[in-house]
Amino acid sequence: MGKVDLSFSPVVPVFDANVALGRRHDRRLTADTVDAALNEMRRAGVDRALAHSAHSAAFDARDGNDWLLEALEGVEEFVPQLVCSPAVDDLARLQDEVDGQSVGSIRMLPSTGGYPFRTWVVGHWLEWLAQTGLPLWLPASEIEPGELHDTLREHPTLSVVLCEVHYVHVPWIFPMLRSLPNVHVEISRFVIPDGIHRLIDAAGHRRVLFGSRFPDSPISPQLYSLHRSGLDYSTLADICSGNLDRLLYRR
Amino acid sequence: METPVIDFHCHVGRWGRYGMDDDPADYLRLMDAAGVDRACINCINFGDARRGNDRVARFVAQRPDRFVGVAYVTPRYPDEALAELDRCFDVLGFRSLKLYPDYLGKPIDDPAYDAVFEWADDRSVVIMSHSSYVHDDDWLTRPDRFVGLAQRYGKISWVLAHSGNARQGQEQAVTAARACPNVYLETCTSMGEHDTIEFLVDGAGEDRVLYGSDMPLMDPRLQVGRVVTADISHDAKLKILGLNAIELLGLDQPTSTG
Predict the structure, then answer these.
(1) CA-based nearest residue in chain B for residue A165
(2) For residue B258, what pLDDT is reported?
(3) Whole-angstrom Cα distance, residue B132 to residue A63?
């Protein structure tokens, strides 16, 4: 008979590297408020989460960022992540927002934003991120891998988290991780068999981050899978929280 | 805890671009790691369906206690399909049929499938088909297309693989299950929102939801995790993980893993 854990909860601290907050235009979510997200996090045994505004990602970065910072004021479980669109946004304004808030990372969505991830568009933004030690989150489906590799190779001190990596990205994700030591990977959509071990083999466990992509994916299944992957406590703890802590708070 | 876990949606065959391999030892290791007793395996990779079905048969022959054979046929070769179905069910001992209309480029309710459905209806066979409705171009296996089929071929048990994938597809899948008592919903996806399992159980009932993983394209630990961590009852989890599949396919209760 199959052995499963019907009352699973994680045994290590968990800091979720990928949560989106707020209402959507295209549908009504069952978890569309900060409190609803917190409830799901508590049910899943997640202590903290890095959160961006869904509105920022889908519609307008600045309006979404403003909402996010208001919504998360005084909510200690969330660390805000600001979205920017370098082709149209004001870098000085974003720098002011970062300085005035507990913002430790930035997210770009080149495909949704309609801009190439090329140095002539994003170069000075990436230079600023590298100088200040702010890591950059990039969803894998938002980027053309050739552009990504060419551009990041010019910014070797910038820390990048490639998030929402899916099995369709298998043809390039492993060579990318081997080629660019400043690229980390977030695993919310990485569902291939032994995916965690394959990533660890390619990049080392300190470049692998647990994220859920909540509410577009459930929080717990990848945690459950991590706990059944034969990882030692230290490795599990690094993937579930330690690596993200180091990325965000090393400055 | 120990409970029967039947993976209703598994493949054999390689798909190198996505890192998919079907080495039998790795397959069994993954099943053990996830707590899966038996995997229902099909091979849809070859245009020559017989070649794929023979590959399935070799897996089943190695470990009949762990693998359940699932047939595949393609309406691109209608002169071969029914004879191959006879061979799969009468000679090889397969228990159900998998269809993948995306290869045909025509919808699941295209007349090209009629002969297969009539054969399956005569035998009260279980058919699992890919089902997906992620965006408007993703229409070949939109779950609402199964309603007419399930009503027309009422002795077939229709399993909607992926339950439509995204929420708009899941909504149609639930509607189909409510309209047709012979429609079942299978759980695996790489897309589903956080409350997908809860949504399927609320909509279709806990007796008509089946655990599947899409192994070895996807890791069964994560897909089992979607069921065991869902906010549903203990009994519902046991049914989805294996009890429903045992009843639907008429399988023996597994006694041990490995």
Answers:
(1) B190
(2) 43
(3) 34
Q: Which domains does chain B have, with CATH numbers?
A: 6-249 (3.20.20.140)
For residue A92, being part of any structural domain is answered with yes
Q: pLDDT tens digit string along A16-75?
A: 999 999 999 888 898 999 999 999 999 999 999 999 999 999 999 999 999 999 999 999
CA–CA separation, A163 and B231 (whole Å):
26
Enumerate the residues of chain B whose CB falls inside 8 A of the CB of residue A170.
17-19
Question: Which domain covers residue A187, as residue numbers?
Answer: 15-249
User: H or E element: which one contains A200?
Assistant: helix A195-203
Distance from CA of B126 to the nearest CA of A (A): 24
Residues of B in contact with A166 (CB under 8 A): 190
For residues B182 and B156, is the Cβ–Cβ distance under 8 A?
Answer: yes
**Tokens (6 digits) for B28:** 């069994």
Query: Under a CB-based contact definition with an 8 Å cutoff, are residues B163 and B185 in contact?
Result: yes
The CATH number for A121's domain is 3.20.20.140
Q: B73-96 pLDDT, tens per residue? A: 999 999 999 999 999 999 999 999
* Contact status of B52 with chain A (Cβ, < 8 Å): no
Cα(A85)–Cα(A69) distance, integer angstroms: 17
